[in-house]
């Protein structure tokens, strides 16, 4: 397949452009790298932020997207577009051919699926096959976007890091297990084949261009709209999506192959995150804390209805099980080795709320 170069000329409802135009990038850097840098998942929340940061650094981009993907997040970016899918490894050879660097950001990211097999195939086997295709094509360096979901959790409020012990049986949820297995595959390929890959583990990105939105973005949106009546006692690490993107590029420039780097921001109790979000949005924060045991029957019914009607549940039993442990993390290693410097999490939430409002998702 021949990649397309595109920027502004798009079909109105996503999909690949039919009338391709050649454009010249005139961004922050006056040095354009001739060998393209591939970004998978570039139409998504994190992937599009990575693509924008790479352009600012002077990279020539090739963006891999699924057939029929929504191109909203990359509509204004001059880049090559190549069709590819994690569940179709035969598409990888064209995507990586001639590339100097690869950023593998694509993943099937859902907290609930009726059938876990396709997610496991895409996230684990798709990642393994893409890594092999990139190495066989002579790619110089790979940045693999894993997740803190693949890391160990202490859970009592103690901060975890890259060295916190983790075992698959303790990883809750099909998405998290798929990311754990994919990360283990990348590490195995580094050991056994000398794969030139650096791993980054974003925490919970928040910010602009969350078009779906992501599960966390939906939570922020609901709270900002005054639709969050209660919360559970848990904790998360919040980071601006653009800082996560910057961390990806720093990992390319300064990271060590086979090493993991947490790209996080600030740790928050969920109660405090909602209070901050409500303050930014000018609404009342949720004040009722519900124990997981109260919400459990709701999750059971929600999952049952979802299987019947084919829509994702707003709460699941796995989500409640995950909430028993506070997902607090340290980015000290990335700060020390990469020069990673995330901004205050309030900026991330403020940017997300402003973007939701500007795009008609928040009244």
UniProtKB/TrEMBL annotation:
<dbReference type="InterPro" id="IPR036291">
    <property type="entry name" value="NAD(P)-bd_dom_sf"/>
</dbReference>
<protein>
    <submittedName>
        <fullName>Putative dihydroflavonol-4-reductase</fullName>
    </submittedName>
</protein>
<dbReference type="InterPro" id="IPR001509">
    <property type="entry name" value="Epimerase_deHydtase"/>
</dbReference>
<dbReference type="Pfam" id="PF01370">
    <property type="entry name" value="Epimerase"/>
</dbReference>
<dbReference type="GO" id="GO:0004029">
    <property type="term" value="F:aldehyde dehydrogenase (NAD+) activity"/>
</dbReference>
<dbReference type="InterPro" id="IPR017829">
    <property type="entry name" value="Hopanoid-assoc_sugar_epimerase"/>
</dbReference>
<dbReference type="InterPro" id="IPR051783">
    <property type="entry name" value="NAD(P)-dependent_oxidoreduct"/>
</dbReference>
<dbReference type="GO" id="GO:0005737">
    <property type="term" value="C:cytoplasm"/>
</dbReference>
């Amino acid at each position: 397949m021949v990649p397309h170069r595109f920027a502004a000329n798009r079909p109105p409802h996503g999909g690949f452009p039919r009338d391709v135009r050649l454009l010249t990038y005139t961004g922050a850097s006056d040095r354009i790298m001739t060998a393209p840098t591939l970004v998978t998942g570039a139409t998504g929340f994190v992937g599009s932020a990575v693509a924008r940061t790479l352009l600012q650094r002077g990279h020539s981009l090739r963006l891999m997207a699924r057939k029929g993907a929504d191109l909203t997040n990359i509509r204004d970016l001059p880049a090559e577009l190549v069709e590819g899918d994690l569940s179709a490894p035969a598409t990888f050879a064209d995507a990586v051919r001639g590339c100097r660097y690869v950023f593998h950001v694509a993943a099937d990211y859902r907290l609930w699926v009726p059938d876990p097999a396709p997610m496991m195939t895409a996230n684990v086997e798709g990642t393994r096959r893409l890594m092999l295709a990139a190495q066989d094509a002579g790619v110089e360096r790979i940045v693999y976007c894993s997740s803190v979901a693949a890391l160990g959790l202490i859970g009592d409020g103690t901060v975890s890091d890259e060295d916190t012990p983790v075992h698959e049986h303790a990883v809750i949820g099909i998405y998290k297990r798929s990311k754990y297995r994919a990360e283990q595959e990348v590490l195995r390929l580094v050991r056994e084949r000398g794969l030139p890959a650096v791993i980054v583990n974003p925490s919970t990105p928040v910010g602009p261009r969350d078009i779906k939105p992501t599960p966390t973005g939906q939570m922020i949106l609901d709270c900002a709209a005054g639709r969050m009546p209660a919360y559970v006692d848990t904790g998360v690490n919040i980071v601006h999506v653009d800082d996560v993107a910057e961390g990806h590029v720093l990992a390319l420039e300064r990271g060590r192959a086979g090493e993991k780097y947490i790209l996080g921001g600030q740790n928050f109790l969920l109660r405090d995150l909602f209070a901050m979000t409500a303050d930014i949005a000018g609404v009342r924060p949720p004040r009722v804390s519900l124990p997981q045991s109260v919400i459990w029957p709701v999750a059971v019914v929600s999952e049952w209805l979802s299987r019947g009607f084919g829509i994702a549940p707003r709460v699941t039993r796995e989500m409640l099980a995950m909430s028993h442990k506070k997902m607090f993390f340290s980015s000290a290693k990335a700060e020390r080795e990469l020069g990673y410097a995330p901004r205050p999490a309030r900026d991330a939430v403020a940017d997300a709320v402003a973007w939701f409002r500007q795009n008609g998702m928040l009244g």
